[in-house]
Design brief:
alpha+beta; about 80 residues; elongated; about 15% helix
């Protein structure tokens, strides 16, 4: 029996709102956590809770600032075709 099912008041952390969460290309393990360095089928926060009995301590909310990749930068030096 998992610890998640035995805790009636357990509310998993929303990994989709964490900057360490990512979607993998692995069909068997489509979700990942960069902070802990693992991939899983379930939300990483649930796996962390089952392993440690405590909520994820590495949760860090995503920022609303856009990334600085070349796709998002405005280039006023170029031309438009």
């Amino acid at each position: 029996m998992s610890k998640v099912n035995s805790e009636s008041n357990f509310e998993p952390i929303d990994c989709f709102k964490c900057k360490h969460f990512y979607i993998t290309w692995d069909d068997a393990n489509p979700k990942g956590c960069r902070a802990f360095g693992f991939k899983t089928q379930r939300l990483p926060s649930v796996v962390v809770f089952e392993a440690s009995g405590e909520p994820c301590m590495k949760f860090s909310p995503k920022t609303d600032e856009p990334t600085t990749s070349s796709r998002n930068k405005k280039n006023n030096d170029g031309w438009i075709a």
